[in-house]
Amino acid sequence: MNAGGVIYLDLEAKQRGTREAIMQRVAGIGDTLRRIFDEAESRGVTPLAAAEGVAAERLREGATSGALV
């Protein structure tokens, strides 16, 4: 299974959004990966460290807004 499949199945099973909204999230995977790789390069860290930073940021934003991260 790929990232898009995991995201789709998880959100669909939890009924967290319309099919269109879920597909928009799946379509954003490439942008997220580009951001992670760009941040890793600019900060001189591994992609894992950059991804963890992006995830932490999203969790903070979601906690304060109540939004689906």
Summarize the structure.
This protein is an all-alpha fold and 69 residues long. The chain has one domain.
Folded structure, characterized:
With 69 residues, the chain is an all-alpha fold. The chain has one domain. The protein is built from four helices and no strands. Helix 1 runs antiparallel to helix 2 and helix 3 packs across helix 4. The longest helix is centred in the C-terminal third of the chain and has 19 residues. The protein starts with a helix and ends with a helix. The relative contact order is 0.10.
Contiguous low-pLDDT stretches (5 residues minimum) are none
Order of helices and strands: HHHH
Class derived from helix and strand content: mainly alpha
What is the tally of beta strands? 0
Taking all Cα atoms into account, the compactness measure Rg is: 13 Å
Instruction: Determine the N-to-C terminus distance.
Output: 21 Å
Helix content: over 70%
Number of domains: 1
Write the layout of secondary structure elements.
Blueprint: H1 3-13, H2 19-27, H3 29-43, H4 47-65
What labels describe this entry?
mainly alpha, 69 residues, 4 helices
